[in-house]
Amino acid sequence: MSVPLLDLKAQHATIRDDVVAALMSVVDQQTFILGDAVGQLECSVAGLSHTKYAIGCANGTDALLLALRALNVGRDDEVVTTPFTFFATAGAIHNVGAKPVFVDIDPRTFNIAPDAVATAIGARTKAVIAVDLFGQMAAIERITSAANGVPVIEDAAQTIGASRVINGVRVMAGEAATIGTFSFFPSKNLGGYGDGGMMVTQDEALFETLMKLRVHGGRKTYYHEIVGYNSRLDTLQAAVLQAKIPYLDAWSGARRKNAAYYDAAFADLPEITTPYIDPANTSIYNQYTIRLAGRDALQAHLKRVGVGNSVYYPLPLHLQPCFAYLGYSEGQFPESERAAKEVLSLPVYPELTTAQLDEVIAAVRTYYGR
After folding, report:
1. Predicted confidence band at 1 (pLDDT cuts at 50, 70, 90)?
2. Average pLDDT over residues 116-135
3. Do 206 and 237 fall within a single domain?
4. Considering the entire predicted model, what is its pTM?
5. Is 1 within the bounds of a domain?
6. Do 90 and 176 sit in the same domain of this protein?
């Protein structure tokens, strides 16, 4: 692959000394479970997200699961969310015993449509999960208004460090939701060397509950107030992430620069729709996602010439076989279904050289004979 979709080796080469020192500090201390690095990272993420509390956990999926549990979502409850997202969003809802209620997306941002949320709120609705897709925040203030008092979880797995201007104030990803959730999967803008996740909140009671839920339901060893989980953020992963976090802002800026370079290069190609960023948002471009008719043919062409790419996501959740019991059918969420057939993500990682960007651009333009 001449231009990979993501090159983590290139990133590691620039921060190796910092990360190795952080890892060896944990090894020397032999504090592998909830060591100092976990608390340090929690403080860093709380500061970054402008929240009072941050709670590390094992992965981004668990962050959603624990958030739902902390809000007492369970059997026979309903949770409103989008079908155009990674599986974990709805999988976590199912795994606490609740029912996912899907609504369609805004075709420009790919994020959940606030007006659709308003129409889906019912007597059994216990929460709303708003997903921030591809690096830009959902319209959290409109979703919160539409939820009409129902708690809102912001699935910010793809937006750590992203922001949105609300009523003249810059709000960070995770800040305005009842609970915000992050993933530190290696491919994320802030990624570990394995799995990791975190939850943020402004609510002290939710903080206390989440702290218990991640360690078998208790703050004191061998005393369990509730039934929880073994979902601790590994100290080694926290050390890696803490070493990386000073670089995050620059990495996100480089992604924005690369995205702007693509935008300019594709501006004269009417066949392609480049990413739309809501004017209120500052995106971190977890993905640079174009949309086009006949996506599969371009994808095959890029593969042939060695340009990395991926489809996020090829089948909306309401059409996944495991959710057939919900009774949805094709055509119910046309914007999500159309997006699934048209989206294609191109390399946008910070370490891309100008030559590599030009190679991606040339491959796309050659396909269209330009």
Report:
1. low
2. 98
3. yes
4. 0.97
5. no
6. yes
- Tell me which residue range forms the domain holding 114: 8-246
| Whole-number average pLDDT of the chain | 97
Indicate the number of domains in the chain. Answer: 2
Please identify, among 215, 246, 277, the residue that sits at the C-terminal boundary of a domain: 246
Q: What is the pLDDT of residue 370?
A: 87
Q: What is the 3-state secondary structure (H, E, C) of the chain?
A: CCECCCCHHHHHHHHHHHHHHHHHHHHHHCCCECCHHHHHHHHHHHHHHCCCEEEEECCHHHHHHHHHHHCCCCCCCEEEECCCCCCHHHHHHHHCCCEEEECCECCCCCCECHHHHHHHCCCCEEEEEEECCCCCCCCHHHHHHHHCCCCEEEECCCCCCCEEEECCEEEECCCCCCEEEEECCCCCCCCCCCCCEEEEECCHHHHHHHHHHCECCCCCCCCCCCCCCECCCEHHHHHHHHHHHHHHHHHHHHHHHHHHHHHHHHCCCCCCECCCCCCCEECCCCCEEEECCCHHHHHHHHHHHCECCECCCCCCHHHCHHHHHHCCCCCCCHHHHHHHHHEEEECCCCCCCHHHHHHHHHHHHHHCCC
Residue 367 has pLDDT above 90, yes or no: yes
